[in-house]
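Listing S7. Sequence submitted for prediction.
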Amino acid sequence: MGSAVIHYSAAATSDRGRKRSSNEDAFGFSVEHGAYLVCDGMGGAAAGEVASALAVDEMMSLLKGRAADAPLPETAEQAISTANEAIFQRAQNNTHLSGMGTTLVALVADGDRAWMLNVGDSRGYRLRDGQLEQITVDHSLVEEQVRSGRMDQAEALRSPLRNVITRALGTQPTVTPDVFPLDIEPGDLFLLCSDGLTRELSDDLLESMLRLDRALEELCSRLTDAANKAGGHDNITCLLVRAEG
């Protein structure tokens, strides 16, 4: 078990943005159970909303019901698998939901140990000692091209293929998340967010805003407002988790 000296607090906001008619993002968290997640749905009509909400509901249910002796990262991976299957089967059974899916970024924490998991291009960051670090790696076509050297970051920002993701929950019978083990120190601040935030605000701006000594609820509101002022082209969701000694 992790050390009991680390305690957590969290807050989140989700906003439709300025261009979209609905909000296909969803989030959930339970400080008591050490579970925090953000999903960004996709699909025609209301399918994206269905996929993201289903992912959050399935995962939170399983993480809250975890047996005390069940390993947390393995439980989280199983929860992702279960959510993926639920979304896939729902789409198979309803032609109006065909092709729906959702991204996912999750943080699961137990004392001074935590794990970040992701599928798609919703991101997870850690601010430590004033320095912001992106923990997750986008599962997107342009990011894969950047990593392979076929495209630089400037080209990636301009690419018309920015929205093409290469991994999502619910679009295939199975899915494999990336898992990042983390050590936790008092003062660590984690940001989980949909790409509606990161498409509008640079990492440098995120870092400067997260450095502010403000309540988590106010920081979430400031991030959302800044993304809307920058264009608000997509739904915006941010979830902040602070580790405290």
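Caption to Listing S7: primary sequence and predicted structure tokens for the chain studied. Strands lie at 7-15, 25-30, 35-42, 101-110, 113-119, 123-128, 131-134, 178-183, 189-193, 236-244. The chain has one domain: 7-244.
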